[in-house]
Amino acid sequence: MQLNYINKNLLRWFLPVAIVVLSVLLLHIVFSQKADPIQEIAPENGILDIRNVDVSSGVINIVNNWDFYPSELYTSQDFAAGTVGEKSRPEESASDTPYGTHRLRILAQPNQYYTICSFSLDYASRVFVNGSEVATFGTVADNAADFVPKVGYMTIPMYSGENGEIEIIYQYGNYVHKNGGYIQPTYLSTPQIMERFKAANDLVSLSVSGGLLLLMLYFLLSAAVRRKADFLCLALCCLVMALRDQNFLNIHLLPADTSWYFVYRTLILIVMLMPVSILLLLKCMYDKATRRWPLYVYLGMTAIAAMLICVLPTQDLVSVSTAVYYASIPYLLYLLFGVARHYIKQRRLEATDILVLFGFLILLAGLLYEAFLTGHSAEVTHYGTAAYGMLGFIFLNAAAINLQIQQREAALIESRSRGEMLERMNRLNMDFLHKVAHELKTPLTVISGYAQLTGMQLAADHISDETPGNLKTIQQEAQRLADMVTRLMEYSYGRKSELSFGRIIVPELLENVGAVGAPMCLKNGNAVKIVASPCADVHGNFEMLLQIFINLVVNANKNTQNGTITIRAFDNEQEGFVLFRVEDTGSGILPQDLPHIFEQGFSASGSSGLGLTICREAVEAHGGEIWVERTGPEGTVFAFTVLKEEPQ
Length: 648
Hints:
Helix content: 40-55%
Strand content: 15-25%
Number of strands: 18
Radius of gyration: 49 Å
Largest sheet: 6 strands, mixed
């Protein structure tokens, strides 16, 4: 039952996260495997020859080796008329000039249809195919006043014609960024394959970013319910990683007419917040490992950078974002130092710690990989790579959180079990005290009775032959009481001595029973009769057997007025046992009470309910049984057996 509770609680927190993360990764793996193979081909001197390439078997990735004409906006007519200038030298880059022209000639099979797809050039572009303008993003111009930026994903159909030649011209303008205007990864294939290729890419982009947004909502709800900052930081990480994908943000999430300046500032802000969100999460998860004031300094710097991104010219935004990345490095090292010191002091590394730390390593690796390749790889620039590290981190972190939940639940259950055990021990101690009090009360009652009788005799100056016997009984009971107290002290100090069993002569035992019981019964006018016929010896503890008889006599005396309480012993009714009977002439036991009289705490008269329980336990300790032989208006007979002493 406890194990089932732990497993249900574990599934309740871990299953939603695991389903989302594994589903996203599974979709990515499935569609990556089903994707058409990509073959990379580099143009030579601005010419791409695919006449001997089987385009229908996959996708061609055209390497960025186009002819480039800096600071010129040429069309097909310019190239046809031969009025174009010299193309750039290898050391010149499109990132160095605010506008220019890229040209690629494709040699293909005649009369074939093709499709190319790619992101437009940053940050405004016009595309010409065989002299016709086929796509426009923003307004390309040779001056900042007329320039209008816009970025989008383009899919352009092409036809090779009779001569099998295709001319592609890209014009670009860039007055908003210090780097830009380079050719994005451009893919070429048949229209059918290209549609399948685009659909697979879109599905991967939508599944990864959509899955992260779903996880963000889940962690926001968890933060609201559980009021933990860790979940809030996880939600922020999921949000920035999801929006980092430009394809998802620009093409699928935002309306087509959204201001490019808003989109660009948002993207820069998102990229800047990626390391901030990760370090904030690391701080929350190891809050006590480092001081708070470095966090406040770091967050203050981030807030200033965020405000600058909202107001500075677009040319300076990347510099601000880069500055935050560099500033994150010393704070990251500080946090790592604090985490390392935390585990050194702790001197142990548990499974949950390993999962969390490994997740952070994956996440930081994805972030660093993206930071190093941004600006060098167009794929990383537009899609990013940290999202996959985030998915891996979330999965491992969720596993760690739920492992902690399992451990806490197990500890709680163990604590409850310990509490229940302590409660049972407390009840047992109380029972023990009740039994001890019950046993101590009997010799005190005997001593009190005989002391009163002797006192009355002394007051009346009527000392008889019974007086020395009374004093002897008082002495014996006082000694028995002292023995009980000694055993109680030994028990309380953990030095409880073993009960000694040996040969007991039955007539001597019954004589003591009569001597102890007779005075207790005088108050109710009852007589104690001992039938001490010849009987075999028994094997037991004298004091325990005496206590059994005393308890039975006390109970019989309570329910008998002016009657007789008879104690008998028989050694021929049960083989190997001596049978004892305690008979009274009292009112008997009610039928509804009879099944419960030996239960601990049960009493029909309002007493402690321990006398018969003590009798049952003592009889069983002697290997015998106790029962009610008969009861009714004529009286009650209790019977019990004790093992005979083995013949020597």
